[in-house]
Amino acid sequence: MTATSISPHKVASRHALLPSPDPSAIKLPDSPQKNTTGTASNTGSLTEKSRGLRRLQSHNQLSSTSNMGTQASNLRPARLGFNSKPSREQLNSVSAQQPTTAAATNPSTTTGRVRANSDAPMPYMPRARKVQTASSSSNLSSSHLAAHARKSSLEMTLRDGPPPGTTTASAVSLLQHSILTNGVIATKEGMSDYRIYLWLTLLNIPAFPTDTYLALIHRGRSPAYEKISNDVFRTLATDTLFKRRVTDASLTRVLNATAWRIHEDQTSDPKTPFASKYTQSTYLQGINVLSAPLLYASRSEAQAYAILTCLLTEHIPTYLSPTMSGVHRGVDLIDRILAHMNPKLSSFLLSKNLPARIYAFPSVLTLCACTPPLPEVMRLWDFLFAFGVHLNVICVVAQLLLCKDALQDHPSPAKMLRSFPSLNADEIIKMTLLVVRELPEDLFRDVVVHARDLS
């Protein structure tokens, strides 16, 4: 393999993360030009109307769904040879820092979400802000400006591409570092103007033509259509955020298109190299839940389909095998990791006849999407897509370690584990980083390859 062809699932070489960029060196967007035809009263400051027009224009550039291929090529690099999965040493070096993500969950800093279908763009509603005069701007503290620069860096990088003189690999490393230290700015409902483009970039997904997705849709019902129909209406059925934004019809189309793609791949003559290596079912129960956050975050069904296809072919192909062999290896790894990290808790659960296969199967298969709340799932996925989907099994162990006292004091641990405690992405990520640092080399290697290993 050459230096410019890095597989997204290859174990990365071990290098330290690049240092965090100096916020003062980041150039903020220039102010729009004054309205030379307006009155004197509005030429000296930025009016709310001009601000709204400028931000709406920026939003349209980000969220246009008329052509998936065009929007993807404008907002992220093509599938180049960069290493999208940092090494264990990179994770360890960054975990020494204290992540500052409070701003990422503060709803007062973002706009509210409007009701929309998954295949329709959300209009941007600019929040009312006081116009800053020259005198008031001079009173802004340097720390406030630095914080604004950090918050804007993810969106600016996705919109404008890497800064001059920056390689694609180093730009992606900066994105990963920013996700871990600052997080993605989103509303309390988990909505972000650029999260979906960040996922496409981190998963190294090339521009995807919408016509490819539409061709699968126009084929009608797939061989797995009846199974899909039986599961769709149950998908996150009690989650009002999900049900308000994603329709059953959208989820059915995405799953049906995915089933057609797998069916074609597995029945082609001759078989594709992927189908020759991996035997996959057209659909398995649980893939509907895995698809749910993708549709919730996406601007179009084609985007959700592209990411789901990438996950099922590049990252977790054995999860969809007829025996779900990759998921079984994942739950076995949870028992091994827990025994290494906390032998007391491990022995306690086993004494109650609670191996991981009893309680952790849904969490492994769905990358924790089966546990609410949905906004926390997406924040956890920011981390997984940046540092490796395989880390999901360690995230499940992290959840057990975080509630170990409650588990040991509970009169019925099995009942408690029937539905995991609500996700707290920040705490899970912190604990995951601690576990990664403590795992033996051979056990961590098994984690990395478990979703692709055919043995």
Description:
Among the domains are: 50-130 and 142-202, no CATH class; 325-449, Cyclin A, domain 1 (Orthogonal Bundle), CATH 1.10.472. The protein is built from 24 helices and no strands. It has helices spanning 48-63, 68-75, 88-95, 134-138, 142-160, 168-181, 195-202, 210-217, 225-232, 240-245, 248-267, 273-277, 287-297, 301-315, 325-341, 343-351, 356-359, 361-365, 374-387, 392-402, 404-409, 413-417, 425-438, 441-449. One of its GO terms (molecular function) is GTPase activator activity.
List the helices and strands and how they pair.
Blueprint: H1 48-63, H2 68-75, H3 88-95, H4 134-138, H5 142-160, H6 168-181, H7 195-202, H8 210-217, H9 225-232, H10 240-245, H11 248-267, H12 273-277, H13 287-297, H14 301-315, H15 325-341, H16 343-351, H17 356-359, H18 361-365, H19 374-387, H20 392-402, H21 404-409, H22 413-417, H23 425-438, H24 441-449
